Amino acid sequence: INITVVDEDGESREVEWRDNQTLLECLHKNQYPVLATCGGNASCATCHAFLDPEHFPASGERTEEEEDLLEMIDDVATETSRLSCQTEYHDELDGATVTLKPGM
Ligand code: FES
């Protein structure tokens, strides 16, 4: 599928997301320097990204760890926040927009 990524500078680019990748892996594959300090283990929140509201439901349920972490960054997190390391590929996410946050 193809998604549009809006980076920290507000630049948007269309990238391919393959079905064997998490969103974090897709972002890394496309040279986005997402920190991911904990290595994709749902314990740091530095891989935080925003989905567009229309596609957010297609990204699946947040895990409990993810909910807890997003609560800890509730000054920046929104209703459509996801930890990209916990966001699996779904066909219905084709055309989604993923926004990265400055300072993440
Ligand atoms: Fe640490 Fe996703 S990489 S929570």
TrEMBL record:
The organism of origin for this protein: Rothia santali
Cofactor(s) for this UniProt protein: [2Fe-2S] cluster
GO molecular function, one term: metal ion binding
Family: Belongs to the adrenodoxin/putidaredoxin family.
CDD domains according to UniProt: fer2
Lineage of source species: Bacteria, Bacillati, Actinomycetota, Actinomycetes, Micrococcales
GO BP: P450-containing electron transport chain
Pfam families membership: Fer2
Matches recorded under InterPro entries: 2Fe-2S_ferredoxin-like_sf (IPR036010), 2Fe-2S_ferredoxin-type (IPR001041), Adrenodoxin-like (IPR001055), Beta-grasp_dom_sf (IPR012675)
Name of the protein: 2Fe-2S iron-sulfur cluster-binding protein
Domain 2Fe-2S ferredoxin-type: 1-104
Annotated keywords: 2Fe-2S, Iron, Iron-sulfur, Metal-binding
Superkingdom classification of source: Bacteria
